[in-house]
Amino acid sequence: MNELRELARKLLGDGTVKVVIGYEEGPRGVRPAMITDPAQAERLVFDARCVHNLATYLNPRRPHLARLGKPAVVVKGCDARAVAGMIRESQVKREDVVIVGVRCGGVVRDPTMKAALAPETVSPRCGHCASREPKLFDHLLGALPPAPPRPAGDDPVARVEQMPLPERWAFWKEELSRCVRCHACREVCPMCFCAACVADKSRPQWIETSSTPRANLSWQLTRVMHMAGRCAGCGECTRACPSHIPLSLILAHVARHVERRFGYQVDDDPSIPAPIGAFKTDDSQEFIL
Amino acid sequence: MASEAPQFEPKIVAFVCNWCTYTGADLAGTSRLQMAPNVRVVRLPCTGRIDPLFIVKAFERGADGVIVSGCHPADCHYTAGNYHARRRFAIFRDLLDFMGVDVRRITFSWVSASEGGKWRDVVNDTTARVKELGPFTEYQGLSDPWPPAPPPTGEGASSSQALGTP
């Protein structure tokens, strides 16, 4: 942690960056912090409560942050995938951001929890994490902590996959009926950066704005399609959802399908093209007559 | 005349590319091939222009089945539109399946401008398949904002029932 504060002080002090985006202690657990003054670098913390994907603050949809000047951003391995995604899709220039990678031993499900990792408290995404050390960074801090415990219970994605079709339909109908269409899943997502979202279009209105199960299904199908092969798997949409809809299940399922089908895993190497937007002439097409 | 029970006639929307399948469907027509009349054709420049939302919207508006059809690989008028579409629909089809939609309601096919017979087969097969599956009431029933209220009990139940309000 001292290493992090030291680095932030140095980067801000010599003018390399104008703002360090990191984590600080808040009244309700850890929260994101924008540090612009080297004297304030003491506020920075990093532990297992640092759940947030701070890459979302690099999103060009947030011009007020861009106005602060060149940022340095603290990223875990999973967040680095989102930064790489934004660089890959020309939303951020590599030279316009200083990436401070931190080696991660897993995070808890919610930043208001205690920093102790247990099978009941560990974030589901950390269970099979293969990128606890980011590969995309300018500075890499900390020693690699021990691997996090596996989350309790069986794999929820496989559980839904194994349901019979009508049961799956009923499951999602029930889950999506709670959606209030606040679009928090979109707002929090680092990879959702369209200036005008199709969900906000009214002429023609592709996606109804009312929160009926039908409109909610349209919205999530669209969002997940746009995330296919791009989702960094940070799980922020699920955490932001006020109705506790398990959106990560859909995204994780699609990510697995993309990997099975196209051999592509979302990675923190910006030079590897994403599977949508690229193609092979011999892609399998068993479902096409 | 003996009255028969009305048979379910599915509504099927076909999103087709202008250069191959639309021309192929035109050929089927000018060749006087007989095929099921259930398909409404929507012509688009290319299968690459077909957003998965089109399919969602078709179901929302009451379609029981959807056909997506375009040029064979390597035949795209725009060189690569169908390759992009192939990847997109491979993912979308699996996504719909994961959400509990019966993907047998959707047919993907490549029909070239000279394959009038293949178009007829695609139309007839899809119509027969969707007919067997029946109306897509699951999706169409989603339009109700709230699940129907339980039948009223006790005081005042009969009056509200008489008014037809739940």
What structural keywords apply?
A: 289 residues, 2 domains, six-stranded mixed β-sheet, 6 strands, globular, B: 166 residues, alpha/beta, Rossmann fold, disordered C terminus
Largest sheet of chain B: 4 strands, parallel
- Helicity of chain B, as a percent range: 25-40%
Give helix and strand order of chain A, one letter per element, not per position.
HEEEHEHEEHHHHHH
- Total number of β-strand segments of chain A? 6
Mean pLDDT across the residues of chain A is 89
Helix tally of chain B?
Answer: 6
- How large is the share of residues in beta strands of chain B? 5-15%
Helix content, binned percent of chain A? 25-40%
Number of helices of chain A: 9
| Quaternary assembly | heterodimer
- Provide the low-confidence segments of chain B as ranges: 156-166
Taking strands numbered 1, 2, ... along the chain, how are they ordered across the largest sheet of chain B?
Answer: 2-1-3-4
Which outline of chain B best applies? globular
CATH topology of chain B: Rossmann fold
Tell me the overall shape of chain A: globular
Estimated share of beta-strand residues of chain A:
5-15%
Largest beta sheet of chain A, briefly? 6 strands, mixed
Q: What number of structural domains do the residues of chain B give?
A: 1
